[in-house]
Design a protein that fits this description.
With 56 residues, the protein is mostly helical. Helices cover 71% and strands 0% of the residues.
Length: 56
């Protein structure tokens, strides 16, 4: 992902750059949560397969 930074002067205004930075921060948060959920689901699936193998 390529992120271009926006320079703000001394007085920050919620213009186009502010909204863009907010959207990028939200996108990064959503991707981090998705990776966390994916890795957690893979761990549970691996644990279930190990438990099934132990019963055999």
């Amino acid at each position: 992902m390529l992120i271009l930074t926006a320079e703000a002067g001394k007085s920050f205004k919620w213009g186009v750059q502010g909204i863009e930075l907010l959207i990028l921060a939200g996108l990064i948060l959503v991707m981090a949560v998705a990776v966390y959920i994916w890795r957690r689901s893979m761990r549970l699936r691996d644990f279930d397969s190990l438990r099934a193998a132990a019963r055999s």
